[in-house]
Request: fold
Amino acid sequence: MNEKGIILLAHGSRLDEADAEVLRLAQLLAEKEASGFFCGVAFLQGGRPNLDEAVKEAVAAGCTVVYVVPFFLTAGVHIKEDLPRMLAQAREAHPGLELVQCRHLGCDPHLASLLFARVTEKMSDLLPRQG
Reply:
């Protein structure tokens, strides 16, 4: 039983493979960084489970504290308005559960490094093959 949980909250897509990528990321998070935590996903639009369903899964797993991590680059309407409203509703439905909204990805040095890594991947694809 996990007392602490993490829900990776993504936008959601009409494309199943896009949502599957988020599921794989949550699995990596559980395996590499957050062993001992319940790790789930939720989607705002298009995908399943939605946030309410993911919170219910976390409660069923024994969580008393759940950190909701928005998998969003910027703090737009979903982060500033929709998510706080949805968390307030979830808190009403689960009064014994502590729900914590984490910061979105935002402008982070790790993200800048990852972006440049994507460029260097393509640069190496363009190098002439020796042999």
Remarks:
- The CA atoms of residues 5 and 48 lie 18 Å apart.
- The longest strand covers residues 4-10.
- The domain at 4-106 is CATH 3.40.50.1400 (Rossmann fold).
